[in-house]
Amino acid sequence: MAIKYTDANSSYTGKLAKGCRLCIKGKKSVLFVTGLCNINCYYCPVSNEKKNKDISYINERKIEKKEDILEEVKACVSKGVSFTGGDPLLKINKCLEYAKLIKEEDSKSHIHLYTGTTDKKINNLKKLEGYVDEVRFHVKNEKEVEALKNILDMDFNFGIEIPSIPSEFERISKIIKSASSSGFSFINLNEFEYTETNWDNLSKRGFNFDNDTSMVEGSKDLSIHLLEEHQDLPISIHFCPSVLKDAIQLRRRWERRAKKTKKYYEDIEDCLIVKGELTGDIIEIIKYLKDELKISKKMYEVDKNKVFTHWAIAEEISENKKLSKKIKTAIVKEYPIYKRLIVEYIPL
């Protein structure tokens, strides 16, 4: 099979898994089911905030009640959800509850699930049939792949997803060959990344880092080599670079969320929410907006001791020498996540 390329800088053979196709378009929300995991990979990238803790998040939002999941999925206009962790299958009843909730709201929503479970507990997957569409296994060797043969008749699209670790061509090649002969549909090779939580472990093992990105040097080259070597196998192989997840997929999801959740007076710039901030005598500010600028109520909002409005209005007030002495003005840029996060504050 010929090697093809996506508009998100990833490369693949065969047909991309549906979960990947939706993810690339920013149409997947990420449901962190639990931080619990029994595998203890030395390269685990999960943050200290979540690692080994039984807590759940939907995108950047901590799940306090199950309705939070549906609210966030709608806010992002997502067409599917990925269940991740930790190892979601350690909390399979929670997976079932969340999957039922999502499917009952939208039966066409696509759910894929990652797991490192490869022992007898994997039979519990049966509970998720009809709710989860795609299952991706994190395996360490070809023996673990072969041990999964007996479950491939379950009603899921099965794949393998592993990091592409430099210098491990032979090990990963054996996994690819075994997955292909066993009947798996696809294998994803994720670019090996370093994070705040795994940096020490990777450094001690002699890995070299690309200081301009979060990549480990050599991972991309290895992945391309593996695609070229095994492109004629009947299994689809996808190399997923870190830039796809960190820049493209996340950015596209934020763009969708920004468009869906922005307020009337807000603009979108480079997937960020942009607005004007006015600080001073609230009554005087509102009087000026209504009486002098003749703007409608939907063009401003009072929040405690501040008034938010369109950035151009804040800019106009800042240019009024008399008024700017009484009203502090600024342009605020925020990530369009559940709890807005200011990334740039520009005093005028």
UniProtKB/TrEMBL annotation:
One of its GO terms (molecular function) is 4 iron, 4 sulfur cluster binding. Transmembrane segments: none annotated. SUPFAM superfamilies: Radical SAM enzymes. The keyword Transmembrane does not apply. Residues 22-225 form the Radical SAM core domain. PROSITE patterns: MOAA_NIFB_PQQE, RADICAL_SAM. InterPro entries: Aldolase_TIM, DUF8061, MJ0021-like, MoaA_NifB_PqqE_Fe-S-bd_CS, rSAM, rSAM_sf. Keywords: 4Fe-4S, Iron, Iron-sulfur, Metal-binding, S-adenosyl-L-methionine. Its cofactor is [4Fe-4S] cluster. PANTHER family: BIOTIN SYNTHASE-RELATED PROTEIN, RADICAL SAM SUPERFAMILY (PTHR43288), GLYCYL-RADICAL ENZYME ACTIVATING ENZYME MJ0021-RELATED (PTHR43288:SF1). This is Anaerobic ribonucleotide reductase-activating protein. It comes from Candidatus Methanofastidiosum methylothiophilum.
